[in-house]
Specification:
Methyltransferase domain-containing protein, eight-stranded mixed β-sheet, globular, Rossmann fold, 225 residues, 5 helices, alpha/beta, three-stranded antiparallel β-sheet
């Protein structure tokens, strides 16, 4: 992965952060570790730790990027002195939490690793068609041939107001976001014809007065920002 491989929403939100050589970054669902390489080339980030449940991905990451630390396991169960709570300047989850059936637990685990004043940056999918306090039944087939067959994974689609309600429980000091409408993946089984693909940067408080700075479509029904 290089910087050019990022989606516009991801680039925009990373650019809002003050990343540098001293920044400590944790990547939840790191795959083969390409994010570390991209952040190094763009922001000179050297302190990068990646976690993934897939052994083959971690083995590949260790071969490709021996300068970084990679841990194999489920972030909900993993205990390691290399990933202390309240430590990281930036915790990233791109295409991980929004694919996980344990969404709420994953969200809490990720926020626990962020130090006060640090940032959790993650991708989310929003829809106006999803009523508040309801749950999407969407899922996606995992294959590279765009076929509706094989292994399935949750395709988490959220009501934006539900998510912001959850995030405010962590008492963040700020939430920035950028999103745009697009079509669901060809391998996704979902009732929604369009999805607002969004990346949020949540600054850890605690703070009772969260500052919102959201660049979302005008027709997305969101009561925040």
């Amino acid at each position: 992965m290089t910087w050019d491989d990022f989606y516009p929403s991801e680039k925009k939100m990373f650019e809002t952060l003050e990343l540098n050589r001293q920044s400590c970054v944790l990547d939840v669902g790191c795959g083969c570790g390409g994010l570390g390489n991209a952040l190094d080339s763009r922001f000179n980030v050297k302190n990068y730790v990646g976690i993934d449940i897939n052994k083959k991905a971690i083995d590949t990451a260790r071969k490709l990027f021996a300068q970084y630390t990679f841990l194999e396991g489920d972030v909900l169960d993993l205990k390691s002195p290399e990933i202390p709570n309240n430590y990281f300047d930036l915790v990233v989850s791109l295409g991980c939490i929004d694919w996980n059936v344990e969404f709420d637990k994953m969200l809490e685990a990720a926020m626990n690793y962020v130090k006060p004043g640090g940032v959790f940056l993650s991708s989310f999918r929003f829809s106006n068609e999803l009523e508040k306090h309801s749950q999407s039944k969407s899922y996606q087939y995992i294959n590279f041939q765009n076929q509706h067959e094989g292994e399935q994974a949750p395709y988490i689609v959220l009501n934006p107001n539900d998510l912001f309600d959850k995030l405010l429980q962590f008492k963040p000091s700020a939430i920035k976001g950028y999103g745009y409408w697009g079509s669901p993946s060809k391998t996704a089984i979902t009732p929604y014809e369009k999805i607002c693909f969004t990346v949020l940067a949540i600054t850890k408080g605690p703070d009772d007065q969260c500052q919102f700075n959201l660049e979302l479509p005008n027709d997305l029904v969101c009561h925040y920002g």
